[in-house]
Amino acid sequence: MTRDRQLPRAAVISRHLHSTTSPREERIPWAAIAGIIATVTVFALAQGLTYPLLSFILDRQGTTAGLIGFSAAMTPLGFIVSAPFIPALARRVGAARLAVLCSIMAALTLTAIAWAQDIWAWMALRFLLGFFANPLSVVSETWLITITPAPRRGRIMGLYSSIVSGGFAIGPLSLGLVGTQGWPPFMIGIVAFLLCGLILFVVVPRLPKMPLEGEATSVGGFVAMAPLLLFAVFAAAAFEQTLLSLFAVYGAALGSAEERIASLITCFVAGNAVLQILLGRVAERFGSTRTMSFCALASLAGCLVLSSIFNSWLIWPLVFVWGGVSFGLYTMALIQLGERFTGQALIAGNAAFAFVWGVGGVMGSPATGLAMQLIGNHGLPSSLGLLCCLLAVFLTAERRRV
């Protein structure tokens, strides 16, 4: 303090700012962040390819929209069943070892799906695909939130979500290059899962350990701690899973070719990739809760105008923005998770996110498929619009209560 009094005030402020920011910047493990994000990118590519590919195949076989939706729900059902086991497995086996093992098992499962080409065999195999793929997402998000400094959380989580979305966009786009027939599209997903394991194996020495401080929290316990946060995850999951699995059916009924539908799905996911960093910056300035409310209302607006402009050029900017704001719900939930929880509660929170994401996928696709059978193709935007409306109402009520 004596030395500080001898310095000009501006110099003292400058020195203190440097001392409080520079060490934090130096402690950010950028190599670990790069490894985590690279892993998630190829994981998302495999996931983004699988949903529309299998939907196209089933649609060509004359499968009903309801059964296609039920088949798609098997993967998120695997998320649900695996989620409660992830925190304990990460502690016992090791997070990195668990993720590498699961990437190998996911590749083998996708190989079996390509070999079987039967909807009833696919039910069990798609469940296993979700079961093995889920730990990759949970482990990577826990690592990333743990090592991200609070002042940069919005931007870094936005970057993370953008790259995840970019991987999803590359998946459907690859179908336009290799088609939906035979082994080539499946091989892209198989290689992607194996690449996940290889990247993790290379960067394991740089990855931090899972945070273990605090009381042990179960997935069910976390659900009671943050119900509205998890409902936002549910809405984002139902929205994305439904679009990936049933947009092909919706577009085909309106007379669009498979190539155009695949391109629209790519545009939808590209909106995620481009807009998440922007939404993260908005959350840093205006708060993640307000930004989440905006995303819910914007998603609802997209549902209301979808059918009226589907065959016009306006569909392209619509699905682009629609994709960004709908997935933005999940980005805002991740930001709030990092703001509110640490240690074992953070691990349980990420596992609960995976659990609820699976529930959203399981309920969203079949419910929307059934709605499409009962009231026609408008059942898709109507179902998703109702979900976004409920979230917006709950968020408004929560803000007024606080």
- How many β strands by DSSP? 0
C-alpha end-to-end distance: 41 Å
Number of helices: 17
User: What sequence of helices (H) and strands (E) makes up the elements?
Assistant: HHHHHHHHHHHHHHHHH
Mean pLDDT: 81
Largest sheet: none
- Quickly give the CATH architecture: Up-down Bundle
The assigned structural class equals mainly alpha
- Which quaternary structure do these chains form? single chain
Helical content (DSSP H or I, runs of 4+) = over 70%
Which fold name fills CATH's third level, the topology?
Answer: Growth Hormone, Chain: A
User: Unreliable stretches, pLDDT < 50, 5 or more residues?
Assistant: 1-26
CATH superfamily: MFS general substrate transporter like domains
The whole-angstrom Rg is 21 Å
CATH class: Mainly Alpha
User: What count of domains describes the coordinates?
Assistant: 1
Overall, the morphology is globular
Can you describe this structure?
One of its GO terms (cellular component) is plasma membrane. By secondary structure, this protein is mainly α. It has one domain: Up-down Bundle (Growth Hormone, Chain: A), CATH 1.20.1250.20. It has helices at 2-5, 9-27, 30-60, 65-72, 74-82, 86-93, 95-116, 119-147, 153-178, 184-203, 219-225, 227-253, 258-286, 288-309, 315-340, 343-375, 379-401. Helix 5 runs antiparallel to helix 16. The two termini are 41 Å apart.
